[in-house]
Amino acid sequence: MDVSDLIFAPAVASLPIDGSSQRFPIARVFCLGRNYHWGATSSEPRSFPLFFMKPASSVVEAVGEVEYPPQTNEFCHEIELVVAIGTDGFRISPHQALEHVWGYAAGLDMTRRDLQMAAKAVGQPWEAAKAFDGSAPITAIVPVSRIGHPQQGAVWLSVNGVERQRSDLDAQIWSVAEVVSQLSQSVRLKAGDLIMTGTPPGVDALLPGDVITAEIEGVARLQVKVGARQPA
Ligand code: MN
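^ Those are the sequences you sent over. The predicted structure of the assembly is below.
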């Protein structure tokens, strides 16, 4: 494919909509930094966490195999509640924020953690760690009209049947309404934007052949297998 194909038939990244033959078009993918307490330090400041982005093209359906990316020896899983924005908004108030949410999904913020640590150490941006091809496996979008706005429910992830991450949506430091409101102070949110809302503790590295099973209770469950490493 080259750009002349795209001019006549724009390739819009999209995800299936659960229970429908239609698809949800993806505008942008925002990701939140720390949104659960990690470890014993319960006195973390309530300042809004940093956000970063992945390209829409990094989204893949969370089925089958996920690619083991190049240039890493520490390919890590992060299970996250994904918020799908249905209505544009700027400077949205917390009370009105949920009206802008069209649906939810379960997603994996896949991370080349060795590259993230190297970038953090020298104050560089995180794209190499976070924005690679296939770095956002996400389930079908489940409409709010079906499940409402889940406020609690287990968030867990296991690898080869061994649990590695477990928390609950009610342990999120920033609620979905607060996240949508806060993010919309910084950017104009657009229909089709996705927000990955942060991961609980237990992030760890994966090996080729590992099977990841994960769930946001009340939203969706996923299972994917980690593919082979790229040949050297
Ligand atoms: Mn994350």
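The pocket of manganese (II) ion is lined by residues 31, 78, 80, 109, 196, 198-199 (CB under 6 Å). The chain has a mean pLDDT of 94.

Shout if you want it in another format.
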